[in-house]
Design goal:
This protein is α/β, with parallel strands linked by helices. The protein has helices spanning about 75, 105-110, 125-135, 160-165, 185-190, 225-230, 235-250, 265-275, 295-310, 355-365, 375-395, 415-420, 435-450, and strands spanning about 40-45, 45-50, 55, 60-65, 65-70, 85-90, 95, 100-105, 115, 145-150, 175, 180-185, 205-210, 215-220, 255-265, 285-290, 315-325, 370-375, 400-405, 425. It contains 13 helices and 20 strands. Helix 2 packs across helix 7 (about 235-250) and helix 10 (about 355-365) crosses helix 11 (about 375-395). The two termini are about 15 Å apart.
Length: about 450
């Protein structure tokens, strides 16, 4: 998953130090006489137009859902109608709205209402936040949150249930890592999930255990669902309220469109309700998640129906997403060679390669854009191979498949992106030189592979 701007389940990590006009993605340079009054006028601004022939302007005018004029404040601001909203930018910068091309908008919006661990650096900080939240919400049956990072826990890079038991022993606690690929549960949550020494690891997941075979509380990949599936699902109204809050946070920093990388079909109706009520302020391009181990007819039909129903500028389907591997920090990304810090580990593919290639072939044949999460170089290579096979077999043109994250890659695979027309969808935030990148990620892949990161 490893979302970028919602890092991770927290919209608060985005910051932009400028005024952003957040209704439109592009600014056409047409000038027109105001035969009909403008709806909105922005004056006294520094507008960066992205037009090399007129890169800067002072004012713009909006009518309906279009920017219809860009120019001087004196010219555009001189014809306001009785209902025209005039915004004096007072010299601030105005930019076209931003698109975040890899985000988990629903999860991030819901995360704004739970324990926010973004930016925490110590176990004590986390404990304080969890304890404070539990005290402030005595009637909530579960304490949930997200945002913890691996370096918080030292060399092991993984949490332990004892830290949560110390502050909330009587209610289940379930906290998701900043990348969405590891989870942390207290003893109460593990007990409710029935996790014992005898519980087998689920496919594509791992229950981390101590020397005695007891679960430590750290759960990798799909093992998190053993506990996560017990967390009460938010109601429709709670989801709608969370989305409203998420859109407010997104608009504050200039986001007007997002690519939701791994959505659910049931979300479409929520977004549509917000649109009908005039509340949808972030355009949604939703990639529907399809799980390994294989593609099903039911999943295909749901995706086809969603594409037929939602295909406009505000809510758009026609995109699917799957995951080939996990992440470097927990050794679940699929590598061609073992991890530098643990030669016994090289990760694993979440799909059988033949079934993955067949799924890609079918989605491509049907005209769906495909997102594939692939972080390890082995996963990246399989995705490229599958896309190449689909292009050859289906004779598709400009299908623009994507590989998400691409944190490690072999030198010989780099030029294949351009040759195949594959979008390299990587997130600069993942390369931020923080403790996670420098102390855990770089250690795990080693210096040679790190030279080809991102």
């Amino acid at each position: 998953m490893r979302p970028a701007s919602l890092i991770h389940y927290g919209l608060r990590s985005i910051s932009v130090c400028c005024l952003v006009f957040v209704v439109f993605l592009t600014i056409p340079m047409a000038q027109e006489a105001p035969r009909v009054p403008y709806d909105v006028v922005v004056i006294n601004a520094r507008i960066y137009t992205l037009n090399p022939q007129q890169p800067w302007a002072e004012a713009l005018a909006v009518r309906g859902d279009k920017i219809v004029a860009v120019g001087a404040s004196k010219e555009i601001g001189s014809h306001p109608g009785s209902n025209t909203k005039v915004i004096d930018a007072k010299g601030q910068l105005v930019l076209p709205g931003f698109t975040d091309c890899h985000i988990h908008f629903m999860e991030g919006s819901l995360g704004l209402t739970h324990v926010d661990l973004i930016g925490t650096k110590s176990v004590q900080e986390i404990q304080n936040k969890v304890k404070d939240y539990a005290s402030a919400h005595p009637n909530e049956p579960w304490i949930t949150g997200a945002g913890w990072t691996y370096p918080t826990f030292g060399e092991s890079a993984l949490p332990d249930k004892k830290f949560l038991d110390e502050v909330v022993p009587d209610r289940p606690v379930f906290l998701v890592a900043f990348d969405g690929h590891s989870s942390w549960a207290n003893s109460k949550a593990l007990s409710l999930a029935g996790i014992t020494r005898e519980t087998p690891d689920p496919p594509n997941g791992k229950i981390v255990r101590d020397a005695k075979g007891e679960a430590t509380g750290a759960l990798k990949e799909s093992a998190g669902e053993l506990v996560g599936k017990l967390v009460p699902k938010p109601t429709r109204e709670e989801r709608l309220a969370a989305l409203r809050k998420g859109m407010q946070e997104a608009n504050k920093v200039g986001l007007v469109r997002v690519h939701s990388a791994g959505g659910d079909f049931e979300w479409l109706d929520l977004y549509d309700e917000l649109r009908r009520n005039g509340e949808l302020t972030v355009r949604q391009y939703i990639a529907y998640f399809f799980d390994p181990p294989e593609l099903t007819g039911d999943g295909i039909e749901k995706a086809e129906k969603a594409r037929r129903t939602y295909h406009d500028d505000w809510i758009s389907g026609g995109v699917v997403k799957t995951m080939l591997d996990g992440v470097v920090e927990s050794h679940t990304a699929a590598m061609l060679q073992p991890y530098s810090d643990d030669p016994k580990e090289s990760g694993k593919l979440f799909w059988d390669p033949a079934k993955y290639r067949q799924a890609v072939l079918e989605w491509d044949r049907r005209g769906f854009q495909i997102f594939t999460h692939a972080i390890g170089d082995k996963a990246v290579r399989l995705a490229l191979d599958a896309y190449q096979e689909a292009e050859t077999s289906n004779h598709t043109q400009d299908s623009r498949p994507r590989i998400e994250h691409i944190e490690t890659i072999t030198a010989e695979d780099i030029p294949r992106f351009g040759k195949l027309g594959v979008i390299a969808s990587f997130q600069p935030l993942h390369a931020y030189p923080d403790d996670d990148t420098l102390k855990i990620w770089a250690r795990n892949v080693g210096p040679e592979r790190a030279t080809r990161a991102w």
